[in-house]
Amino acid sequence: MKADIRVCSAWRDRHDRPVYTLGEVCPECGAATENAVPAPFSPEDHYGEYRRALKRRRRQ
Ligand SMILES: [Zn+2]
């Protein structure tokens, strides 16, 4: 069985968190959705981790 979860393509601008749906448009803002393929990592998340690691290190 193939999951066909989609996610609002503009959620970073318009929502606090990803808005998942099965439809072609976001039920909350009407923006187009894109396939919510679980990426191994996203550059943004990667740098977020990096920043958090730096902050943690600085605090010690
Ligand atoms: Zn949306």
TrEMBL record:
One Pfam annotation reads Nop10p
MF terms in GO: snoRNA binding
* Stretches for region Disordered: 40-60
For bias kind Basic and acidic residues, which ranges apply?
A: 43-52
Gene Ontology terms describing biological process: pseudouridine synthesis; rRNA processing
Task: Give the range the annotation lists for the signal sequence.
Answer: none
The alphabetical list of record keywords is: Ribonucleoprotein, Ribosome biogenesis, rRNA processing
InterPro entries to which the protein is assigned, alphabetical: H/ACA_rnp_Nop10, H/ACA_rnp_Nop10_sf, Nop10_arc-typ
Supply one GO CC term from the record: ribonucleoprotein complex
| Family per record | Belongs to the NOP10 family.
- Give the protein's function: Involved in ribosome biogenesis; more specifically in 18S rRNA pseudouridylation and in cleavage of pre-rRNA.
**What is the official name of this protein in its record?**
Ribosome biogenesis protein Nop10
